[in-house]
Amino acid sequence: MTLFRHENRQQTESSKRLYARFEIVYTLVDFGAAFCFVLGSIFFFYDSLMTPGTWLFLIGSLLFAAKPTLRLVREIKLYRMGDQDDLASRLKD
Fold first, then answer.
1. Using CA of residue 32, residue 37, residue 39, residue 43, what is the dihedral sign?
2. What pLDDT tens digit does each residue of the chain (93 aa) get?
């Protein structure tokens, strides 16, 4: 079994639930990053809000950086779930 294969997401009910949970978190991170960038952009129109705007850009950037990390963690968990299924089937044989 390899990483980033669609079949890994559909193997069991628990793998489907795990995939769905990560998709929800991934989407929330996307919205959070977009919100930070839009609000940070608005803040840049006002000199008094320049520093908070800069912080919002930094937070948005960190959220965007978290996305590939979430995807990799999800795929490793799905991979390990498949390994357990393989080992269980070998024990039955």
1. positive
2. 566 566 666 667 888 888 889 899 999 999 999 999 999 999 999 999 999 999 999 999 999 999 999 988 988 888 888 665 554 555 565
